[in-house]
C-alpha cells in the first residue's frame, strides 16, 4: 500500500476514534454537569485519545525523511478498537444497565 493511502487511513481511524470518544464522554457528563463543563471534559478526553492513538501508529524506529511517518498495522487498529470498546462499556453500557 502506498504511504499516502496509509496516512489517509490512519487519519480517518484516529479522527473517528477521537470523535466517538468526545461523543460518549459528552453524553455521559451532560446529565451530571453543566453543558460547558461536560463539553470541556469531553474535548480534553478526546484530545488524549487523539494523541494516544497517533502514538500507536508511529513507527518504532522513526527517522525523519528516511522512514514513513505512520505504520498501519492490525495490532494498532485492534488496540484502538479495544480502547473504544472499553470507553463504550464505561460510559454507555454500564450506566444504562442500572435499574
TrEMBL record:
Q: Which residues cross the membrane?
A: 6-25, 37-58, 70-91
Tell me what this protein is called: Uncharacterized protein
Alphabetical keyword list: Membrane, Transmembrane, Transmembrane helix
Q: What is the protein's species of origin?
A: Halarcobacter anaerophilus
Amino acid at each position: 500500500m502506498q504511504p499516502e493511502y496509509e496516512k489517509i487511513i490512519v487519519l480517518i481511524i484516529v479522527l473517528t476514534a477521537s470523535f466517538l470518544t468526545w461523543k460518549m464522554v459528552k453524553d455521559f457528563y451532560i446529565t451530571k454537569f453543566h453543558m460547558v463543563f461536560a463539553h470541556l471534559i469531553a474535548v480534553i478526553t478526546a484530545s488524549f485519545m487523539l494523541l494516544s492513538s497517533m502514538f500507536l501508529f508511529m513507527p518504532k524506529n522513526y527517522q525523519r525523511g528516511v522512514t514513513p511517518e505512520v505504520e498501519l498495522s492490525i495490532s494498532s487498529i485492534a488496540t484502538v478498537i479495544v480502547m473504544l470498546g472499553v470507553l463504550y462499556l464505561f460510559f454507555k453500557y454500564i450506566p444504562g444497565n442500572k435499574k
